[in-house]
TrEMBL record:
The gene is apt. Belongs to the purine/pyrimidine phosphoribosyltransferase family. The keyword Cytoplasm applies. CDD domains: PRTases_typeI. Residues 44-157 form the Phosphoribosyltransferase domain. Homodimer. It comes from Sphingopyxis jiangsuensis. It is found in: Cytoplasm. This is Adenine phosphoribosyltransferase. Catalyzes a salvage reaction resulting in the formation of AMP, that is energically less costly than de novo synthesis.
């Protein structure tokens, strides 16, 4: 249940702050802290993502550390579903399965608790931002290794110039995004 009334005309892109040269020279960092700090902006982001997620009839929402947790957890609660966290290496206390992946600005490893999803579970993946697609493709790989069916991946922000949406399309993973920033 979301307390604020829908604002279908609210411009979410205007609430995202751009910080040049973070964390490295040449990167235009799209900062969602200003979006989530705006009550109507956060509620509307969660509402729009949840409405799209519902069309895939998922059993779970899968949220990617760290910024994906903010949106994925709120969506899962609004939709009456549980949320499964996919975390950076060494953070989960139980037995994990993991996968290495490349970022726009580095290399990292993602892990999932064994048994967090079961064979046949249908999941929707959620993250704040789609850049190269490496993070979400690694997350999809983890889900499939666990036997889950990946219905779709949802994001607040797409950076189309970095090719993530094209990679997901080529991989056969349906993908939806709320807003896009060109020129990255
Ligand atoms: O499409 P990709 O090229 O994989 O990039 C997108 C990922 O990069 C960012 O996370 P980051 O790894 O910076 O971690 P954070 O959420 O912990 O800040 C972002 O939140 C996505 O998870
Ligand atoms: N340009 C960018 N801004 C914010 N988060 C990111 N993650 C990967 N690329 C990013």
């Amino acid at each position: 249940m979301i307390a604020l009334p829908p604002q279908p005309d609210l411009d979410l892109a205007a609430l995202v702050r751009t910080i040049p040269d973070f964390p490295k020279p040449g990167i235009q960092f799209r900062d969602i802290t200003t979006l989530i700090g705006h009550a109507a902006g956060f509620a509307e982001s969660v509402r729009r993502l949840s409405a799209r997620a519902e069309t895939y009839r998922p059993d779970f929402i899968v949220a990617v550390e760290a910024r994906g947790f903010l949106f994925g957890a709120a969506m899962a609660s609004a939709m009456g579903l549980g949320v499964v966290p996919v975390r950076k290496a060494g953070k989960l206390p139980g037995v994990t399965i993991g996968v290495d992946y490349e970022l726009e600005y580095g290399v990292d490893r993602l892990e999932l608790h064994e048994g967090a999803v079961e064979a046949g579970h249908r999941v929707v993946l959620v993250d704040d931002l789609l850049a190269t697609g490496g993070t979400i493709l690694a997350t999809a790989e983890l889900m499939r290794a666990a036997g889950a069916e990946v219905a779709a991946a949802l994001f607040v922000i797409d950076l189309p110039d970095l090719g993530g949406a094209r990679r997901l399309n080529e991989a056969g993973l349906p993908c939806e995004t709320l807003i896009a920033f060109d020129g990255d």
